[in-house]
Amino acid sequence: MILMFSNVNIKLRVALVVSFLFFGFLLLYKQDLQSNEEILTTPLSDSQLASERNKQNGLSTTLSSGEIEFDDNQADLYKEIVSNLLRRHYKKQELDDKFSSDYLKTYLKMLDPGKNYFLKSDINSFQKWSDQLDDYSQSGFISPGSEIFNIFKYRYLTRLNRNISLLEDQSSTFNLDTNQTISYDIESKDWMSSTQEANEYWERRLTDLLIRQFLNDEDENLEDAKEVLIKRFKNQLRLINQRDSQDIFQIYVNAFASLFDPHTSYFSPRTNENFQINMSLSLEGIGAELTTEDEYTKVNRVVPGGPADLHGALKAEDKIVGVGQENEEMVDVIGWRLDEVVELI
Question: What does pTM read for this prediction?
Fold first, then answer.
C-alpha cells in the first residue's frame, strides 16, 4: 500500500483501516418518530423560494433536478433532534438571535471552509435568516439549509467547470515563473465580492496547483500536471452530484449540534453504518484517525504504539493526496469523501 502525502511518499506494507474516535453526545437516526407537534407553515412554497433565491443572487441558471430538498420526515427528525439536545445535553444553550447568527456562520463554514465558492452577495442574502434560525429549529422549518446548499452547489459546479475548461483550453497560458502570491490564510480572507474577483483568484490558484504538482512529481510536464488537475476536478464534480438530501441534512444538523460542543454529532444512517464498520476493523489497521480539511483527507492523530507510530513516517497533520497499491497507478484522492478514501485504502 502506498499513501502519497502532500509532503512525503510512504510505503506501508500493512493493511490500512482508519479508526474514528468521536466523543461527546452522539445522536443516531430513529426509524420511528413519535412527535405530534406541528411544523411551522412555510410562507413560500419550495418553487417560490427557489425563484426568489435566484432573483436575489442573480443566478440565470438553476440546477433543476440537481437541487436537493428536505422532506417532511427530515423536518420531523430535525425538530426531534433539536428538542433532545435542548433537554438532554449537559451543556445548556439559550436559543436566541446570537445562537441563530452563529448557526448560520457555522453552516456556511462547513460548506465553504476556504471561502472559495460563495460570493459576498450570497452571504449578504443569507443574512435574512441570521436572526431566524433559532425559531425555525424548534418548529422543524429546515428550508434555509437546502436553499443555502443549492446556491453553494451552483457556485461549486460553475467554478469546477470553468477550471476544467481553462485547463483543457490549449490557448490558456499558465506562467509557472510568476512572482504572484496567493494566500491561504482563511482568517484574514474575506468572501469574494464579484465573479471577476473569483475568476482572478482561481487563475492564481490553478497556477499554484500546477506548481505544486510539478514539485510533487518532477518527471511530469505541464500537460501531465494539467491532466492530474482535470481528473481531480471531474472527480469533485462526480462527488458533489452524488450528494443527496441525507448528506446535506447531516451537515445542517451538525452545524446546530456543534454549537453545544465540538464533539456533539449527528450521524445519518449511511454515516453510522460506515462508522460501525470502521470501528469494528480499527484494531486491524495501522492506528490512524483521519478527518477532512477543506478538500483534503488529513491525519488527525497517530495512535501511540500502532504500526504507523512504529513506522515513524506518518505524522499528525499530514494530508493524504493519493493512494495506490505498489506497482499500480496512484489514485488522486483530493476532494474525495472521507468514506470513499477509507474504502480505497
Answer: 0.68
